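Throughout our pipeline, every protein is held as a single compact record rather than as scattered files. The remainder of this section carries one protein's record, kept here as part of the documentation.

===
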Amino acid sequence: MKFVTGTIKSTHQELSELRAGGWLGRTVTLHGAVHALREMGGITFLTLRCRDGVMQCVFAPGILPEDLAEESAVVVTGALHADKRAPGGMEVQGEGIEVLSRPAEAMPVPVHKWKLKLNLDTELALRPLVLRNLRERSVFKIQEGLGRAFREYLSGQGFTEIHTPKIVHAGAEGGSNIFRLEYFDKKAFLAQSPQFYKQMMVGVYERVFEVAPVFRAEKHSTPRHLNEYTSMDFEMGYIDSFYDIIEMESGYLRYAMDLLDREYADDLRRLGITLPDAEHIPVCSFREAKELAAEKYHRPIRDPYDLEPEEESNIGRYFQEEYGADFVFITHYPSKKRPFYAMDDPDDGRYTLSFDLLFRGMEVTTGGQRIHDYQMQVDKMRAKGMHPEEFDSYLMIHKHGMPPHGGLGIGLERLTMKLCGLENVRYACLFPRDLNRLEP
């Protein structure tokens, strides 16, 4: 009888072990894919792509199989030596190689190159292969860091992680931008956001968060829209004002930038990223921000109720030029353009206690204080032409008592896009879904 122990015993080393020190001059064993092969004067330089980086391996003539090809899965054994010219300042003097598998065909794109220079459609069609490129991989390591920081920071602030349904009976945001589907003999939709459920869970845990996909049936074909994206949401109760939500997000951003600086330095360097200052983020009202940008850049205000993409860009530019700020919170959006659950400003009902966070000229967060009073919520629904009886399960929480609360949703792909300096949000999504794309 054999019993498992939950421990994997490996004779192989990881790059992180070698970087930690103590291995120079010793024989090491590494597994990975042959990222690149290059011959110089009879010597072959093999770049081994491992899960956490690359290692340069140098082989004398006669050691490597003649049919060894890029993207072969191999195990390399050899002595580790210091070499300032090699990636990471180390290289393996190859003594042996075991080929675990060979590709059936040559790669259609040279993923070992620094930049692939493919058009967007070609890159996305070849996404499973293109993602092997080191710079492409680094984008999603940065994205991992942003998501990891969100979980770590909020868990440290007393939040509970939840998982809410993505098949729902009604849209949380209203409007027509919702995917319909057949659910046995009932009408159902794909969730536009976890809004209703995270509010419900405030009555249970007080502070909750979720990182999960959301779906928008918007017929956009712009560099900033996806039909499925990852939303990092939180909701918190017993707030004094919606500025508590702003402060919580500011704390997350500080934590995230510090984590990336400490643990993702290779990826930051590979992408040429300069981390933004998250220590001093200005806060400006919607109306004032529009006026400041319109006056400085001589662009008349066309829509008094919302921010157009060009306005977002100009507002971001204004706060960068005037205050050196990459982030800016824009508060008090007009009630006309905010969902029915947004609390109106008691001092001026035309505006709401809500905000967006702009990052380098693009909205990456929407949040604010929610209505917690039952009658106030019912009245606002009716004022917007809605039928409260269609939202009985949602209104249950208001009817039976809720504290003042609020929250936000952060678009993970947009945040990644702007941080990495990408020109299209699709580059910040592993396998994008848009108007025309269901594969790969």
Observations:
- The two ends are 43 Å apart (CA to CA).
- Residues 134-156 form the longest helix (23 residues).
- The chain has twelve helices and 18 strands.
